[in-house]
Structure formats: structure tokens, C-alpha cells
């Protein structure tokens, strides 16, 4: 073979290899394109199954990959059970029918904080009995679960629904909400059934007549959707005490239920990861169970969903830290923590407690929290109104705030529609930081609320009988100014210290902390199989 012929053979072989390589690459590219288009069409199809709800006033996420908060709501509407669930007759016997219980309430309210900088998540639960000022309600206060109930529109002359719930959380708690996501009873039940049930460990037998929960023995139990729903809805729980051989009342009501829900969600997340996400068929079935009954705000786009999935794909849902907003159970509120013989469900409320609430929310929001610490008291004018009827309470509160450096604009009496034990710190629209600055100077049952733009001062404090002004760090910094007499300051300081002591004593017995330890009888994850 001549040298020239050898060169032609080598050139032909290279050309054939190059053609085969091009063919393979073209085939791979075609496959990627087909899968990509098919994947997009599938995702688009599934995304279009999600329902939409108009929510006004959402906070637009700041540019540059800043943190955002997604409001997660469990709607307890009975109508979805009656329409869809094969178990609705059993469930309605416990929770009431669609015709018996109008509207729907936010039976579960959680805020998911997502930080793209750290690829981390944090879940904060808000108790359903949390007592908050209603935006636009002129002092009216209700439980947070009522904000979703449109059945109350007619007689309270306010527009209830997702927008009211979002406004209450943003204005009263200072938590900005970027998106709204809502599930209902039926969705939760169906997800568990799609997974084939869920296994969870019960340290002892549990029962709740109202929710239908009936766990008859200790150990790992396999629950179907109806049983799982009964567990996470149990607020009137009894547990069997093997040491006494008797059934005992749990007494923690919704607050204990939140803890059990956090535990259950961790177990559920692990089940989903193990049995659904590892199998495309199971994953498809799971999406088919969730998405048609899911509702999101009108601004939640497909690109938002894809971005969240990509950014937080490595987050372990079962390891997301959880907390509950600290609250205090006021005396006489007939909450479950009171004697069960005196229990009155319609009157159950819990109140925000400072400084615990403000501290927990700042921790939850991290770098996106309101920088109220930077506000100087001397830049804030404050009017103080007596909201409890306690003699001289407004004057003493104003004097104590003046000692801290705030400018007192006026003192008077309030016509108050809320709890006389709770103080409300009202701020002008856009001045949340000022409101939180004053709130940080109070100890006890207190909350901020957005007031009208024409209110009498930057901040208006309506006093409560269980709230005290936090004294300055040292006695040397509490010298009174020339506008306040030394006798008045001395009287106020003594009264404030006494009130602060009584407020602290009350908190020690009735306060529910953010990371309250679970009770020994609460369920937990089953031990990992070896």
C-alpha cells in the first residue's frame, strides 16, 4: 500500500468516526430537546392545575436574591370534604358539614422563610387562637383563624379572606409575605393515602373525640389519610398514663397540636422523599393528589416555582428548623390550658408576649428583619391612651416612656375594642420600625398595629393592664428631663417596677415559648430500620 493510499484510508477512518460522533451528539441533543420540551409541557400542565386566588398587598421580593416568606395556610373548609372525600361522612360527624359550618378558617397558619444566600429554610407557626388587631377594623381584634372566614363579612363590615390574613401578619407581626399557598382538608388526606399511608411512633395510646383520633396502643402505627388528619387536628387530646392506669387530659390545645404537626410534617417529608421522589410514577401520583386542590396567589408564576425548586433542591424538608410564635394564655380566656371542666372553646385566645415575640420574629427573619434598633427614641413622638381603665395608667406609662427618651405628644383615654389586658402600639403607614421600637420598650401582652396616617403622633400606645415599660439599663441613664417632675418620675419608676414584676410572674406560669419541648406522649418518627 502506497503512502498516499494509507493517508486516504486514515483520513476516511477519521471522517467516519467524526460522522459517528456527530450522529451521536445530534441524537443526544435531539433526546435532550425532546425530554426538555416534554418536561416543560408536563410541568406547565401540572402548574396549570393549581388554583389561583387574588391576594392584595403582598410584599414584592427584593432584587438580588434576598430572602422571602411564603404563607402556608391549611383551610378547614368542610365543603371540600363533602364534595370529594370518600370518608366525608365520618369526617363531617367530627368537624361539621358544609351547611352547618359556613366559610373556612385558617386552621393551620405557617410562614416559610427562604434565604437564597444560604440555601436555608425556617418554618414559623402562628397559633390559630392568636388575638390580633384587624387591619381597617378601628380597634377590632379577632383570632387570626377568623381572618380567612368570609362568612363574617356581613356583620363585621370588613372584607375577610386571604388578603385580610396577609395584611394582619404583615401589619401586626411585621413579617413581610411574598406569596400565599393554601391547602384544604381533602388535599392533606389524599396525599397521605397516595403515599399508601404513613407510619408514626406513639409512646402511648391517644384519643380525641372531636377529631376522631383513636390510637389504642403504643408503638409504631400505620395511619391512613383520615387517621392522619384526625391526629394533626387533635386539640382536645387525652393520653393514657400507664403509671396510673388512667386517661389524662393533655390540656395544651392548639399549641400542643402545633408541636405534633411539626413532628408529623417531618415524618411526612421523609416518607415523600423515600417513596415518591425516588419513583417518577409515585411522584406523578403525588402531584396529581396535591396540585388540583392547591391554591396560590395570582402572582406566583411557573418561573417562581422552578426557581424555588432549583435553589432549594438540596434542602432536607425533614430537617427544616421549626418554631412557634411565643404567646401567653391570659387568665380567664377559657383556653385549653385552663381546667378542662371550665373549657369553653369559643372563648379560647392567646396573646402575643413581649419581648419574646419581637425577638423570635427577628431571629426568624434574619437579615430581612425590620431594623427598629436603629431608630432613636428621641425621633419618635408618642401619644398614650388608657385602654384598661386602670387609674393613672396612661400617665404612668407616658412618664416611663419619656424617661427612655421618647417625646410624649399627649395623654388621654381610649375607646378600646380589644382585650383590656393587651397593649396595642399603633403606627402610621410606612412607620413599622417606629412602632416596633416602642414595642421593644414594653414587657407583657403587647402588639403593633397599623393605624391611620392622621393619628395624633408617630406612635399611639393604647395601654393594657398586664404591660409594663421596660426600665432603662441603669439608674444613671434614667434621669428625668426638665419637663417631667422628679416626684412624677419617682412614682412612675416605682409603679413600673412593681408592674413589671407582676407581669413577669404571670408570664412564668402562662407563657408558651417558641421551642417548647414536646410532651412525652406526643408521637415521633419510628426508629430507622437496620
TrEMBL record:
The chain crosses the membrane at residues 21-43. InterPro entries: LytR/CpsA/Psr_C, LytR/CpsA/Psr_CW_biosynth, LytR_CpsA_psr. It holds the Pfam family LytR_cpsA_psr. The keyword ATP-binding does not apply. Keywords: Membrane, Transmembrane, Transmembrane helix. Residues 379-464 form the LytR/CpsA/Psr regulator C-terminal domain. Residues 467-499 have a biased composition (Low complexity). It comes from the Bacteria. The keyword Iron-sulfur does not apply. Residues 105-273 form the Cell envelope-related transcriptional attenuator domain. Residues 467-502 are annotated as: Disordered. Belongs to the LytR/CpsA/Psr (LCP) family. NCBIfam families: lytR_cpsA_psr (TIGR00350). This is Putative transcriptional regulator YvhJ. It comes from Ferrimicrobium acidiphilum DSM 19497. The gene is yvhJ.
Amino acid at each position: 500500500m502506497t503512502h498516499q493510499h494509507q493517508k486516504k484510508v486514515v483520513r476516511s477512518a477519521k471522517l467516519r468516526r467524526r460522522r459517528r460522533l456527530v450522529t451521536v451528539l445530534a441524537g443526544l441533543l435531539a433526546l435532550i430537546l425532546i425530554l426538555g420540551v416534554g418536561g416543560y409541557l408536563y410541568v406547565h400542565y401540572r402548574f396549570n392545575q393549581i388554583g389561583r386566588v387574588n391576594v392584595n398587598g403582598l410584599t414584592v421580593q427584593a432584587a438580588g436574591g434576598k430572602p422571602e416568606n411564603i404563607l402556608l395556610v391549611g383551610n378547614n373548609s368542610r365543603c371540600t370534604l363533602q364534595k370529594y372525600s370518600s370518608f366525608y361522612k365520618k369526617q363531617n360527624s367530627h368537624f361539621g358539614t358544609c351547611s352547618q359550618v359556613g366559610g373556612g378558617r385558617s386552621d393551620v397558619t405557617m410562614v416559610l422563610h427562604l434565604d437564597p444566600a444560604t440555601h436555608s429554610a425556617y418554618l414559623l407557626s402562628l397559633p390559630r387562637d392568636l388575638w390580633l388587631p384587624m387591619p381597617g377594623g378601628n380597634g377590632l381584634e379577632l383570632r387570626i383563624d377568623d381572618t380567612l372566614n368570609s362568612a363574617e363579612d356581613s356583620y363585621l363590615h370588613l372584607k375577610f379572606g386571604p388578603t385580610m390574613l396577609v395584611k394582619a401578619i404583615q401589619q401586626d407581626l411585621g413579617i413581610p409575605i411574598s406569596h400565599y399557598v393554601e391547602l384544604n382538608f381533602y388535599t392533606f388526606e389524599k396525599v397521605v393515602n397516595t403515599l399508601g399511608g404513613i407510619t408514626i411512633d406513639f409512646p402511648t395510646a391517644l384519643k380525641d373525640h372531636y377529631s376522631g383520633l383513636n390510637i389504642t396502643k403504643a408503638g409504631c402505627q400505620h395511619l391512613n389519610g383520615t387517621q392522619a388528619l384526625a391526629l394533626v387536628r387533635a386539640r382536645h387530646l387525652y393520653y393514657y398514663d400507664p403509671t396510673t392506669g388512667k386517661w389524662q387530659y393533655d390540656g395544651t390545645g392548639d399549641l400542643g397540636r402545633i408541636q405534633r404537626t411539626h413532628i408529623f410534617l417531618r415524618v411526612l417529608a421523609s416518607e415523600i422523599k423515600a417513596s415518591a421522589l425516588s419513583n417518577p410514577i409515585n411522584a406523578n401520583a403525588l402531584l396529581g393528589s396535591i396540585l388540583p386542590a392547591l391554591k396560590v396567589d395570582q402572582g406566583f408564576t411557573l418561573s417562581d416555582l422552578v426557581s424555588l425548586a432549583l435553589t432549594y433542591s438540596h434542602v432536607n424538608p425533614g430537617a427544616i428548623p421549626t418554631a412557634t410564635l411565643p404567646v401567653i394564655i391570659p387568665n380567664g380566656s377559657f383556653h385549653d390550658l385552663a381546667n378542662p371542666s371550665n373549657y369553653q372553646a369559643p372563648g379560647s385566645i392567646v396573646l402575643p408576649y413581649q419581648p419574646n415575640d419581637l425577638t423570635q420574629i427577628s431571629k426568624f427573619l434574619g437579615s430581612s428583619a425590620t431594623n427598629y434598633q436603629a431608630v432613636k427614641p428621641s425621633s419618635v413622638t408618642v401619644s398614650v391612651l388608657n385602654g384598661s381603665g386602670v387609674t393613672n395608667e396612661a400617665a404612668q406609662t407616658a412618664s416611663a416612656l419619656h424617661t427612655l427618651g421618647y417625646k410624649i405628644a399627649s395623654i388621654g383615654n381610649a375607646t378600646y375594642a380589644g382585650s383590656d389586658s393587651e397593649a396595642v402600639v399603633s403606627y402610621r403607614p410606612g412607620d413599622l420600625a417606629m412602632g416596633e421600637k416602642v414595642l421593644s420598650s414594653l414587657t407583657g401582652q403587647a402588639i403593633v398595629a397599623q393605624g391611620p396616617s392622621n393619628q395624633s403622633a408617630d406612635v399611639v400606645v393604647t395601654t393594657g393592664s398586664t404591660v409594663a415599660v421596660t426600665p432603662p439599663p441603669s439608674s444613671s441613664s434614667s434621669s428625668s428631663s426638665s419637663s417631667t417632675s422628679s416626684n412624677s418620675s419617682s412614682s412612675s419608676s416605682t409603679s413600673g417596677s412593681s408592674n413589671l414584676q407582676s407581669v413577669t410572674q404571670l408570664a412564668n406560669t402562662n407563657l408558651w415559648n417558641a421551642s417548647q419541648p414536646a410532651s412525652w406522649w406526643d408521637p415521633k418518627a419510628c426508629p430507622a430500620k437496620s
